[in-house]
Amino acid sequence: MSPSAPASESTAPVTTEAQQHETKVQLAGKVIAGMPYLEMLTGANRGIGLGVAESCLDNGAAAVYSIDIATPGDEFATAQKKWGSKLRAISADTTKEATITAAVDKIIEEQGAIHGMVVNAGKTNHKAALDFTEEEILSLFNINLFGAFYSARTAARAFIKLGIKGAIVFTASMASYRPNKRVPSAPYGATKAGIRNMTHTLAMEWAKYGIRVNSVSPGLVETAMTYWVPQQPDWEQQLKYYGGMPRLAQIQELGGAYVYLLSDAASYTTSIDIPVNGVIGSKFFRILLVVAC
Predict the structure, then answer these.
(1) I need a labelling partner for 32 at 20 to 30 A (CA). Which of 12, 151, 161, 190 fits?
(2) How far apart are CA 260 and CA 264, in angstroms?
(3) Which residue intervals are annotated with compositional bias (Low complexity) in the record (predicted)?
């Protein structure tokens, strides 16, 4: 048996890299880009995307850029009065990768860096599978799935070029887990299931660059598109039977999940999906699922 090492050589604890990581959930100094969710028959730069943008700014983000093909509406203008130059809008078509690349290049030109991308652009269309036209199906896949891939890849290329360990957060949906009986949409659910699979695959591919890829799956969210949900005659009865939070989520209640995944506190968190559904939409809730994400 070899002699024991001197106490001076064996008793001092070694400070590991993990002990030096950020423990506060904050976005101080970070530049975040994101795409507002396109609700059917409403404007852009609003809804979930704008709520997430304000959550990022509330938690110290240096700047948040809204990337959208549409002109910012009244909600965005109101938010911009509060945040000033920290909240900006850039026009781009997420179905065309070149326009997203140009938008990200502009952000880097103005800010010197980009640290996070919220891939939130999308649309929805609820009808029976037999009633969808080919054009409607292609539109859903072009925006929800192909556009999401282009956006994530553009961000990853920028992170790698700048040597930044960036974060990408997709908006998936509880519809990616199971169908919605009352407002079905097979193509929509398929695109969101694709988002979750893409999250895992890209996280695996880009981990070597220090890039983290995750997703958030919102449940029932109070937006212009879901006003009818609590007006159903049997809404209260449904909530009592299935349990869960007895209300729709407010847009701002989604923000915490995105902020965490974008922050350095999540430096070892990648390839996960965070359902934000108030229990509604869980395996016990099989009638009402997502209508707003």
Answers:
(1) 190
(2) 8
(3) 1-16
User: Tell me, what DSSP letter sits at residue 176?
Assistant: G
The SS3 of residue 206 is: helix
- Going from the first residue of the chain to its last (293 residues), give the mean pLDDT of each consecutive group of 10, the final group possibly shorter: 49 55 86 65 56 93 91 88 94 94 96 96 88 96 95 97 97 86 85 97 98 92 72 76 74 91 96 86 41 40
Number of Cβ within 10 Å of residue 47's Cβ equals 23
Q: Which domains does the chain have, with CATH numbers?
A: 24-276 (3.40.50.720)
Helix (H, G, I), strand (E, B) or coil at 79: helix
Alpha-carbon distance of 201 to 198, in angstroms, equals 5
Q: Tell how strand 116-119 and strand 167-171 pair up.
A: parallel
| Contact status, residue 163 vs residue 271, Cβ threshold 8 Å | no
For 92-211, strand residue ranges (E) read: 116-119, 167-171
- Do β-strands 273-276 and 212-218 pair in parallel, antiparallel, or remain unpaired? parallel
Q: What is the pTM of this model?
A: 0.84
